[in-house]
Design brief:
With about 350 residues, this protein is of the alpha+beta class. It has two domains: about 140 residues, no CATH class; about 160 residues, Heat Shock Protein 90, CATH 3.30.565. It contains eight helices and nine strands. A five-stranded mixed beta sheet has the order 4-6-7-9-8, covered by helices on one side. It has a two-stranded antiparallel sheet with strand order 1-2.
Length: about 350
């Protein structure tokens, strides 16, 4: 807590105690254990009474809880707490009788009855101090936990992205390699497009970005793969966007699409080599459906790889309670269904 916040906190607590005193000591005809405003005794009785209450409150805050209770010395904590309450209640009851004598108040309160009343009030204030410090410590602990968690998330994401960049580079260069010798002009154009995609990944995808921009990146990648695969596959894709201004963590969708092209079947009959990609954003919900055919004999380990492992971890870190991912491997098709609430 910085100095300004500490000053504000202290000033606020002083104000609360003063308001407490003013409300009881000077607000109308109140009779508290035969002390009244009419006799002039109540302001004095409540002054030392509130002092004892504040003492019990803050002894919990600054000593009993942080120095004893939190170190698991609970028996000692309870013994000390109740011993202090009894001592303070006895002292206040003694002060009450002195004040009765000064103001010549003919009280009907017995010593035991007055002591019990004071003890009950003191238990309430002591309990309030206990609750206050625990609430404060819980809030501080939660703040520290969230800060540590965020730092852990950032470290993990940096690590995952460091893994993913070489993976993407390998896949992209592999795509260009297949064009060299077949169509050198197209290979150059594809390499230029790929350099743009790599630039986007390296320099423009460090924070959340516009969904429109991310989907444009995805579309360019699909077109590169479409050029490379040509008539070897039957490719269908649709991208529909309702609100371009929505934001998303970058590079979450591309690994699933990469995986589809990488593991697509390679039958002689190209009409059976199929990839279907459907991306839609509606009402803040982004859905990705990717289906590709595969060959059991070739793709025994179709589910997995660095790219998919990383993106699953990223989804867990970035959208822990707002995403659903289903990956199904059927007889001839590999199906990914992903939904994210942006």
């Amino acid at each position: 807590m910085n100095k300004t916040k500490r000053v504000i906190s202290v000033a606020g607590q002083v104000l609360i105690w003063l308001l407490n005193y003013g409300f009881i000591a000077f607000a109308g005809d109140i009779n508290w254990t035969d002390f009244t405003n009419a006799s002039g005794s109540l302001p004095y009785a409540y002054a030392y009474g509130l002092f004892f209450n504040a003492f019990l409150f803050y002894i919990q805050v600054f000593w009993l809880v942080p120095k004893i209770y939190t170190y698991n010395k609970k028996v000692k904590f309870y013994v000390l707490s109740f011993s202090i309450i009894i001592v303070i209640s006895l002292i206040e009851t003694y002060f009450d009788y002195i004040l009765y004598g000064i103001y010549k108040i003919d009280t009907r309160e017995s010593f035991s009855g007055l002591f019990t009343t004071n003890a009950i009030v003191h238990i309430l204030y002591s309990s309030a101090g206990f609750y206050y410090i625990f609430k404060l410590k819980h809030k501080k602990s939660e703040k520290n936990r969230q800060s540590l968690l965020q730092e852990t998330y950032k470290t993990e994401l940096r690590y995952l992205k460091a893994q993913m960049n070489p993976h993407f580079l390998f896949n992209g260069l592999n795509s260009v390699y297949h064009l060299i010798g077949k169509n050198d002009v197209l290979a150059k154009e594809t390499l230029l497009q790929f350099s743009g995609l790599l630039r986007y990944q390296l320099y423009e995808s460090n924070t959340n970005i516009l969904l429109e921009k991310e989907l444009d990146y995805v579309l360019k990648y699909i077109k590169i793969e479409e050029t490379r695969k040509g008539s070897d596959i039957r490719l269908n894709y649709t991208i529909k966007l309702e609100n371009p201004a929505r934001q998303i963590a970058p590079l979450l969708l591309i690994p699933f699409i990469e995986n589809a092209f990488k593991h697509c079947s390679n039958h002689i009959d190209s009409s059976t080599n199929m990839i279907q990609i459907k991306i839609q954003e509606k009402g803040g919900k982004l859905t990705l459906n990717v289906t590709n055919s595969y060959e059991n004999s070739i793709n025994k380990n179709v589910v997995g790889g660095i790219g998919l492992t990383n993106v699953q971890k990223r989804l867990s870190l970035l959208y822990p309670n707002s995403h659903q991912l289903k990956i199904n491997k059927e007889m001839t098709n590999y199906i990914v269904d992903l939904s994210i609430h942006l």
